[in-house]
Amino acid sequence: MQITETINDGLKRTLTVVVGAGELSERFDKRLDEIKDQVQLKGFRKGKVPMAHIRKLYGKSLMSEVLEKAVNETSSQAISERKERPALRPNIELVGGKDTMEQVIEGKADLAYSMSFEVLPEIPAGDFTTLSLERLVAGVDDETLNKSLDDIATRSMTFLAEDGRVAGDGDRVTIDFAGKIDGVAFEGGTGEGMGVVIGQGNMIPGFEDGLKGAKSGDERTIHATFPEAYPVKTLAGKAAVFEIKVSEVAGSVKPEIDDAFAVTLGLESAEKLKEAVTERIAKEYEGAARMKLKRELLDELEKMYAFGLPPSLVEFEFNQIWGQLEKSLKDQNKTFADEGKTEAEARAEYRLIAERRVRLGLVVGDIGDKNKIQVTQDELRRALIEHARRYPGQEKMVYEYFEKTPGAIAELRAPIFEDKVVDFVLSQAKISERQVSRDELMKAVEATNEA
Hints:
Blueprint: E1 2-9, E2 12-19, H1 21-35, H2 51-82, E3 91-94, H3 98-105, E4 111-118, E5 132-138, H4 142-155, E6 158-161, E7 172-181, E8 184-197, E9 219-225, E10 239-253, H5 259-264, H6 270-304, H7 311-331, H8 343-370, H9 377-389, H10 395-404, H11 408-428, E11 430-436, H12 438-450
Parallel strand pairs: 5-11
Antiparallel strand pairs: 1-2, 2-4, 3-4, 6-10, 7-8, 7-10, 9-10
Helix pairs in contact: 1-2, 6-12, 7-8, 8-11, 9-10, 9-11
């Protein structure tokens, strides 16, 4: 095999690789020898077909197979010998026209092909001790704790039907309904035995208010208008008329936050419930603060590392992002105009996002490699279990998906690896802490996400 570099421009490389006819002949003879015992032809016992006959019958197809394997193996060998890391799979083109390839297949000419690719850039080591970052710390105040406890009680609320009860805020009204727009029934506008809790805001504007004051057995006509931003475009902004029959009005019964209620949730006492809720809120705050800190760290790393990016890798990442964006807009029946921008503006914006992702992906990978950061099997196992828990009753299907789908485990591994690299960099950076309120923390996180 002969390798000649024809282009070396920045990150771009083009090589010409020549595999001699003699080597191809050896590969062909070896492959012929591998199949000779399996060949069956009428008039011959299995494995006793003359080699000349096999060569005549299968020579062309076998040589094509040999050539494909030779290209795959020699291209990998060429890259390995040069100790280069292609950004993406190299583009390979055979040198010569149809006549040349016929000669190659017949064993009368060398195989020559060109291989074009972009290499990953060399990334210099960074000094993370120069980084100065701030971690926000928020405590759990009584107001937030009490609101969370009240939310838990509200979710555990029961309803008790009362004869003659007049429907008001917080009551559950069970209804049969039939809706029309311009006198015509519409899909999803009719139902029976539906429970509506007044004041929850789950229905379109005007609907819940129209149930106030109703009693069991009442019939009403409610006028309500679908919001302009309603997800079903055929209903958005339309005025509807609903004929309603009330079958039941039930008052809400919210449990007290006491020991008895705590026991129904699997805890020993109200005090233990408060401790558990406080711990959960504290973890939420820590997660939000870490999200902000991580974003700011990645911003600093993006500034710290200035190197050229492989255009093909940026283009690949951009196409991935753009494809997801187009699908999302289509699913929501939206256009770029609905987002307040032109397609050209969106393309420019998302190309910058693609460049950021590629740069940070290379940086994170390089830091991990240089510092021997690895994701353990135990960490992967815990992540898989956590992922499966999101799909109650379908855990087996989740495990089978990760077992059978190429690349699925890599997708599970990537965020774990990134977080371990982030932790490594943070361990070397200068981190100051600042005490803030919950509102200050959430505003800071929101501002960081919008930046």
